[in-house]
Design brief:
The chain is of the alpha+beta class and 96 residues long. The protein has a single domain, classed as RRM (RNA recognition motif) domain (Alpha-Beta Plaits, 2-Layer Sandwich). Helix content is 23%, strand content 36%. The protein is built from two helices and six strands. It is elongated, with a radius of gyration of 15 Å. 12% of the residues are buried.
Length: 96
């Protein structure tokens, strides 16, 4: 991995992702915009002690937001949907 930058920023927990986790053994993360699929796979395997089958990445555009007459934009970000191999799972709410 390139340097010591953080690859995985945070887990992405939505209703749609929760359904994917139950049905297809997929989890999603907000990741560093410069990270590639191989770096994401290695980071997930090391951090969560699982085996990864596939990684899909999506570049997400930041939304336009208004406050009165002022207009701004949220930052662009990258989403990674990770498919885990059979028999492995990640539970984000375990033990907390």
């Amino acid at each position: 991995m390139k340097g010591d930058r953080r690859i995985i920023i945070e887990p992405l927990i939505t209703e749609k992702i929760s359904n994917l986790q139950d049905e297809e053994n997929k989890v999603a993360f907000v990741v560093d915009r410069a990270a590639n699929k191989i770096e994401i796979q290695k980071a997930v395997e090391i951090k969560f002690d699982v085996k990864v089958k596939k990684v899909a990445t999506i570049q997400m555009k930041g939304k336009l937001k208004r406050m009165g007459k002022h207009e701004g934009r949220r930052s662009d970000w990258k989403k990674a949907i990770v498919t885990l191999k059979e028999g492995f799972s990640i539970d984000f709410f375990e033990g907390k």
